[in-house]
Amino acid sequence: MAKHRGRGIATIEYPTGMNQNGDPSQAWVKLKPDGRVDVFAGTVDIGQGSRTVHTQIVADTLGVPYDWVTMDNTNTDSSPVCTGSFASRGTFIGGNAVRFAAEKARERVLDIASKELEIDPADLEIADGEVVAKGAPDRKISISDVAAAATWVHGELITGTGAALKPYAVVDDDTGKVDIDPHSAISYAACVAEVEVDDETGEVTVEKMVQVYDVGRAINPMLVEGQIDGGAMMGLGLGLLEAAYPYYPSAEHRGGEFGAYLMPSLEDLPELDNVIIENPSADGPFGAKAIGEMANNAQPPAICAAIHDAVGVWVTECPATPERVLRALDERAEPRRDGKRVIFDEAVSVRGVSANAGKDAEGHGFILVDD
Amino acid sequence: MKAVGARLPRYDGLAQITGQVRYVDDVRVPGTLWAKALRSPHHFAGITKLDTGKAEAMEGVHAVITKDDVPLNVYGHLSALGVPGDEPLLAEDEVRYKGQPIAVVAAETEELAQAAVESIEIAYDEREPLFDMRKAFDADAAPIHPWGPVYNHFGPPDHRRIRKGDVEKAFADADVIVQGVYRPQAIEHCPLEPQTALVVPEADGRLTIYSCTQAMYFSMGVVAAHLQCPLNRLKFVGGTVGGGFGGKVDTATETVCALLAMKSKRPVKWRWTREEEFLASSTRAPWHMEIADAVTSDGWILGRKMLTLHDAGAYTRFSSYGLTKHAFHHTGAYTIPNLNFNGYVVFTNRVPTTAMRGFGVTSVSYAAEMHMNRIADVLGLDPFAVRLKNANRIGDLTGNMVRLKDPSTVAVMLAAAERIGHELPAELRGMTNEPRTGELLPEHLKASVATNGSED
Amino acid sequence: MKLYVNGIEHDLETPPLESLLTALREELAITSPKAGCNQGGCGACTVIVDGEPRRSCLTPLAAIDGASVTTVEGLGADGALSPIQAAFFDHYATQCGFCVSGFMLAAHTLLEREPGAGRDRIIEGLAGHLCRCTGYVKIVEAVEAAARGDVDLSRDRDRESEFLTEGSQA
Questions:
Q1: Cα dist from B313 to A224, B100, B319, whole Å
Q2: Residues of chain B contacting C89 with CB distance shorter than 8 Å
Q3: What is the ipTM of this complex?
């Protein structure tokens, strides 16, 4: 009849880009006659803010004010391929595509500016929408005038295309060995969860979570925080509340409504303390890595570890519902010890449940860890 | 002035807070018909009779489609990656999960469409389903697919394998072997915006497809394959989604609406009900993971044996991809030199599972981190200390032989420890991700670490 | 059925047993309230009816004949944002944006009745609204800012220049 506090940690890593690569993102950029920039990319904004991140990348790559950049990701007639907004690839691979396109456009801007100023492109730089001679700040031309000159004098559409693609990594079917990195980068995170467990009701309340994320470079810190916060609540749901099949392996649902499926609500919000580390990637735009997908991975094990710290039981089937916590408290299961083996959870293992240790009549089937 | 690194407001922020963002359900096209589906009420059954005549004859119904209307009915989402398709867009002679779509109706109103669905004559012969993947090879397990209980295109093996070093020696050398089972469950994506597609047949024969897909070109490829048409026949319009989380990639609404639009020559919208989202839409997969780690009493992990069962539900979808990713990351953020991993994509009679935030790795992060905490507990060691000594460092080789160039495992852990005020002894506090030397490079790790100057 | 929506009188053709949500979205083409669940479970359909936040998906027209309805399109005045809208914008309280209409109208009403409401009251008052993207953190921060009166109401996109940073970055 008591409440117990506990703390648990988890450290995770997560790859950027589709596993084994081979997932292109492409973009193209054009300048209007007054220098304003149109970006066409296929990356879908599912809420993560890819349109914001991409326009930020283009603005700084080209050297124009942020509000000069508009983005159209609305359709497949004008936008080129983006494999999709998943696998945490939107900022890195999608961002590289727009960056490459902006770099090509930048070269064209410098080339035309060099003709207008009669200065070698290598001696020019761009900042805040102006092309300026290095070391001679009074020799300059605005990008607006460059675009006008391109349109009305030189007969050129200033444009740039970009395609980001890491080649497909081949895997050896016997060993799993790959011939090249099967990812564009790897992000890392740690989570410490503090919980309070009521040993009479089995209820677990997450009081606080400290989360540390290495995102390479936070292109927009507000967007990164949004992912950390949203992921934290989704992770809390995974750890404590949510199950499509509450009586798994039965396929029975509890119903087809929000009230029957417990998605985290405002009242589940714990204290969140977020730390962003920037250990830049080698190849990402401005050193960025990724965060979107991994954001809900560290919380479930941290919470379950905290439950063990609080009340001394391991709940190893998520969600750690009050029922599961109470059952674990009732059973106080100890692992079986067999020589130097310490064996937990035997009753739910394949060996414990299957009639023939997971094998068919010919002896073929699952390779168990103690086969 | 710089934009990168700035806390700029959202590009679409003003449109969002003034209610001007257009999601698929906000698009208005005159003459739009509503779609409703006939879905299997059984987990596993043969279809012995299907007659849509009454539905087609109903006033206000403009089209009914079944498998016969689909130019290429069976097409796998990963076919382009060489994964053979096993799932029909609309059921063929059997249904393998409760909720599987069999026929779809397009009518003037939602109510009419639903009434037409209910008028379709259908008969089933029910079969014993399989729900528990641990028993998939058992003699009495329901044969869901003709080729057997698991996905069998991982090359010759019927499972994804990681083999590294000498795991038997590691187990012989270990002071303790810690073994446990981890079972995270199926999760609903629950985006606030339900799956919605609207397809408009244009005068020139093209189809404009308003879609909430997370992946316009990926979905366009799927539709084009089902319709057997070139990509320029289709124009996907989207780019703004009311939440996805991985659940709006395994496209089906667009193809169905396209077929109905072609047949009825009217725009057709299919907006899933929240009930359909909970009961028939794909979920995160349930996973079953068994880990046995060979450890020393001072906390080194010498080797890992792991068995993963991934519950694919009734069809493969992206499961083989997810399991492969899982295999590549099954050592977590640590360097474990001797490995024997075996992972299976197992079919059960439930809604096919799909990608969801963290796909493939969420499960292994759960298992690996729970197991690390158990190891620390069994050995009586600080969970930070066990992690820090095994943590990835520059030059470490992963399980699938990737050379790590700049891992941040140590950095994030030390930052977390500091933030919570957890006192670590000096030798741990001073750790970095620099290449292993001295006490951090015991004999058993030498083969897994780059020698000076050699880089892939 | 007659309704006053954002100050404009409408004679509705939508049948009286249909929901207010259907009438708004399908007949009047006011699409800011969203059909998140049509079960009253998520709050994305919330609009203000005679001063009360109501789940429009569960409100039959027959029950509100002659009522005054406010949607997001009716917030703010003379080209300026309402405080709650400005707060949501500045505090990045949106990600996919699908839930935001319901949240803002509920928060707007809460703060009208309880100006200066504190964090606990805000959480309690909005608890029936679901968001899957934001984890609620910045939504609460936005409503707290609006409660404090700490908002900038201008609607100008050029305000973005306030957020940019000085100097060069690699």
A1: 33, 11, 9
A2: 9-10, 13-14, 17
A3: 0.96
